[in-house]
Amino acid sequence: MAxxxxxxxxxxxxxxxxxxxxxxxxxxxxxxxYRIPVNSHPTQGGDIPIYINSNGVHTDIVVPLKNDVKDWxxxxxxxxxxxxxxxxxxxxxxxxxxxxxxxxxxWSDLKASTAFKAAFYLGSSAMHTKFYKSLKEDxxxxxxxxxxxxxxxxxxxxxxxxxLDDAKKMQWISGHSYGKYDAFYEAQGRYSLFYTCNxxxxxxxxxxxxxxxxxxxxxxxxxxxxx
Length: 227
Fold this sequence. Notes:
The protein is α+β, with helices and mostly antiparallel strands. The protein has helices at 2-33, 98-103, 112-119, 148-159, 197-207, 219-223, and strands spanning 37-38, 48-54, 59-64, 90-97, 125-132, 141-146, 172-173, 182-186, 212-213. It has one domain (34-226). The chain has six helices and nine strands, in the order αββββααββαββαβα. It starts with a helix and ends with a helix.
């Protein structure tokens, strides 16, 4: 009996130590890798404005609603918002876990099952879009001027993040929004501790040949590159 108890205690100790080691390694990676820059010297002289916009936790990439490179009004429809119509010059894209997006409008609504699925690659994803007439730069909203070529790379990245239907159209998730000027769509990929909403935004900046972190799961890692 004593030997059995010892085996159980040894297994429990190893399990706990394994968890502690994982957490320490994860936090160390977060702390170190966001400090390593990618595309430190992007092409200068761009005339297309984009923004990285954070709510303090989650980063959106905000792009022109329509220009010579891309007309988003053909994919992201005003009629799929509660307002049904609006005057807008920009549209924001934010990728994330579908359960978080649709079932957790406030942090107080967060369920343990939703958090577990999101953390361990068990949920599905969605794209949140929002129309803006204008944006104001501040500590959590940074304007970046990029070239047409680089913007085309960013556009391609965003487009490929959507889950398309058989007609190659973006799939609107009806009945869900945070306000009058936003909408949700089905998206590709799965959220996890290693690929978060901010990782997605950081990868988008890489696709557009802009300054980005080597890897980051949180918004501060992105904005650190623009300080």
